[in-house]
Write a structure and sequence with these properties.
The complex is a heterodimer of chains A (116) and B (117). Chain A has no helices and 12 strands. By secondary structure, chain A is mostly beta strands. The chains are: A mainly beta (116), B mainly beta (117).
């Protein structure tokens, strides 16, 4: 079946440090890939997405590139801020056509804490 | 444009009681999805509904759980005779009509945190 594996947290960084959160997936077909962010006590917000191989999603300084050859979608940001402290979820959908292709399959999440 | 609304935000029930969770999708959206997040886990798909139709309930537990999305009003996730293992955060998401494609973005609500005593 489909699965998403994220690097385990928590991750603690100093402000302005470089961030990488690794995400790899297992799926049949050609899934769409997403990063969602969950701030404390809130729901998930879409951060970025990519729908085909070699696409790069970007938003708010975050980037991720859909790498089909390595089945990866790593999240990066060049300079993190305290306000980026949250839980980040990698997810996929559409790994196969037909029924159920819209289901999002999530990783377990990576908690990021950024300290001043 | 209001986002996805869920209520209540927090719900406490004793074992054996019923829990009703409500979700109003974004304006203009007609696809609703329910997910459950257990502590320290990612979200798990439960059910996908369109107005008056359950499209896919493959992620729903076979007993005690049901969902509906009537022609008028919010989508309801109903849990009968709750047990401690039902304690979790339940998230609703919506997407626009005429889609249901895997490339679509699903927009999430703030969640209902259910605690079963």
């Amino acid at each position: 079946g489909n699965s998403v594996t994220q690097m385990e947290g928590p991750v603690t960084l100093s402000e302005e440090a470089f961030l990488t959160i690794n995400c790899t997936y297992t799926a049949t077909g050609y899934p769409s890939l997403f990063w969602y962010v969950q701030y404390p006590g809130e729901g998930l917000q879409l951060l970025l997405k990519a729908t085909k191989a070699d696409d790069k999603g970007s938003n708010k300084g975050f980037e991720a590139t859909y790498r089909k050859e390595t089945t990866s979608f790593h999240l990066e940001k060049g300079s993190v801020q305290v306000s980026d402290s949250a839980v980040y979820f990698c997810a996929l959908s559409g790994a196969y056509s037909g029924a159920g292709s819209y289901q999002l399959t999530f990783g377990k999440g990576t908690k990021l804490s950024v300290i001043p | 444009n209001a986002g996805v609304m869920q209520n209540p935000r927090h719900l406490v029930r004793r074992r054996g009681q019923e829990a009703r969770l409500r979700c109003s999708p974004m304006k203009g959206h007609s696809h609703v999805y329910w997910y459950r997040q257990l502590p320290e886990e990612g979200l798990k798909f439960m059910v996908y509904l369109q107005k008056e139709n359950i499209i896919d309930e493959s992620g729903m537990p076979k007993e005690r759980f049901s969902a509906e999305f009537p022609k008028e009003g919010p989508s309801i996730l109903r849990i009968q005779q709750v047990v401690r293992g039902d304690s979790a955060a339940y998230f609703c998401a919506s997407s626009p009509p005429g889609t249901g494609k895997p490339t679509d973005t699903q927009y999430f609500g703030p969640g209902t945190r259910l605690t079963v005593l």
